Amino acid sequence: MNLVTAIILAGCSSNPETLKATNDSFQKSETSIPHFSPLATGGVQLPKADDSYSLPNIEVKKGEDIDIRPPLIPLAIIQNSITKFDGERSLIVYPKQQAKLYNLQQVERLLKEEGISSTTDGSILTTDWAKTERIGDKSIEIKYQIEQVMTADVSALTVSILHMRRDGIIFTPNVSDKQYYTSERLNHIVLTLTTAYNKQLQDLSSTLIQ
Question: Does the global pTM surpass 0.85?
Answer without folding.
Answer: no
